[in-house]
Amino acid sequence: MAGVYVHIPFCKQRCIYCDFYSTTQMHLRDHYVEMLVAEARHRNNEIKQPFTTMYWGGGTPSQLGNGLMRDLSNGLRSALNLTDLHEFTVEVNPDDVTHELIDTLVDMGVNRVSMGVQSFVDDELRLIRRRHDAQRAIDAVDVMRAHGIDNISIDLIYGIPGQTTDTWKFSVDKAIEMNVQHISAYNLSYEAGTLLWRQRQQGELTEVDDETCVTMYFMLVNALKKAGFEHYEISNFSLPGFYSRHNSAYWNGTPYLGLGAGAHSYDGQVRRYNIADLQGYLHHIIDQDVAYQEENLTIQEQYDETVMLTLRTARGLDTAIIHDRYGQAVYDYLMRQAMPHIEAGRLSAQGGQLRLAPESVMVADDIISDLFLA
Ligand code: SF4
Q1: Which helix H or strand E contains 257, and what residues bound it?
Q2: For the chain, what is the mean pLDDT?
Q3: Which domains does the chain have, with CATH numbers?
Q4: What span, in angstroms and rounded, lies between the C-alpha atoms of 89 and 40?
Q5: Which residue's CA is the closest to the ligand 1 atom numbered 7?
Q6: What is the DSSP letter of 269?
Q7: What pLDDT is attached to residue 252?
Q8: d(CA 89, CA 57)
Q9: Which among 17, 29, 54, 347 counts the fewest CB atoms within 10 Å?
Q10: Facing residues of 186 across strands?
Q11: At residue 368, what are phi and psi to the nearest 5 degrees?
Q12: Is residue 284 very low, low, confident or very high in pLDDT (cuts 50, 70, 90)?
């Protein structure tokens, strides 16, 4: 099992909170697609194939347009072994969704679409400078469904300045009403250098306080549970059978190949980071066929990563794996560090699995870092 991630960095305009690698240099799209396929060909042997999941993220993959998306899909299919692909996800912006776009995706073999909705309140969407309004997102889901896409994921954001528990409830209820199969929800974060961060510095907007964000999070958890969603990772919820296989593979430590500017790859031991700069990426691929720097993860880093990723999931951390991979001393260390949290009810330890208690999710980072190897 392995996954392939393809980063499409193009965005028509920048949302004020965004710190993903993205660019508005749309005139480079053709060249970029060509170089992505060249990179895939060159790195064809890096990860044991066939790939079982593929994810196109961004940026905004739907900004490639139909022709380039087809070219990229065909190019990747000729460069990589995608014969056993179970899940093929493409991220789209609601504003780009048309019958032609979804027709193209279906033709390409896409069977899961992830859409950044963020809110169903127009004032909130305007404030964070999303391109679409709420109605556009609702119509986009209808279009996807009309073309037989039955695995739709939407993203929501809580903690938007001006958002209240009432407007958040409205967005959550609307999301449930739309009968999508998967919902991801994130707390708005103020990343240094973003416009959102600068606006807060200048006192132009007021941050939603932590207590309200916690209330919003648990409103979401309870409402989705009632609607039949499984809470399978801190920020991710799905109807039964609709977990994101690609993201679950990241959390399980499955190897993946990352293509494109800013993409990361992991082969189980070595992490490779592609340069997060479009021009730099294109030059590196032309000159050297690759655009990454690599880092051999130490045993300590591998252990820390396993703890961090698995404890965020409902399945939790399998302590037998820690014992098998890292030995008795590390296992003893883990259990010693976990004990105060188990005794305080913040972690549970059953059947060899360590799991976060539901009410401890908001302090997950603190608990997890206590378990890291010092
Ligand atoms: S569409 Fe996504 S990647 Fe592009 S600017 Fe907005 S949040 Fe960032």
Answers
A1: strand 256-259
A2: 96
A3: 3-250 (3.80.30.20), 300-371 (1.10.10.920)
A4: 18
A5: 18
A6: S
A7: 87
A8: 8
A9: 29
A10: 157
A11: -60, -40
A12: very high
* Distance (Å) from CA 347 to ligand 1 centroid: 35
Which strands make up the sheet holding 264-266, listed edge to edge? 230-233, 236-238, 182-187, 152-158, 112-118, 87-92, 53-58, 3-8, 256-259, 264-266, 270-274, 292-296
pLDDT (tens digit, 9 = 90+) per residue, 99-157?
A: 999 999 999 999 999 999 999 999 999 999 999 999 999 999 999 999 999 999 999 99
Residues with CB under 6 A from ligand 1: 11, 14-15, 18, 20, 22, 58-60, 93, 116
Q: Which ligand 1 atom is the nearest neighbour of the CA of 93?
A: 1
Please give the number of the atom of ligand 1 that sits closest to the Cα of 12.
Answer: 4
How much of the chain exceeds pLDDT 70, in percent?
Answer: 100
pLDDT tens digits, one per residue of 297-328: 999 999 999 999 999 999 999 999 999 999 99
Q: Using 50, 70 and 90 to split pLDDT, how confident is the model at 268?
A: confident
Q: Name which residue sits closest to atom 8 of ligand 1, judged by CA.
A: 18
Work out which ligand 1 atom sits closest to the CA atom of 17.
Answer: 7
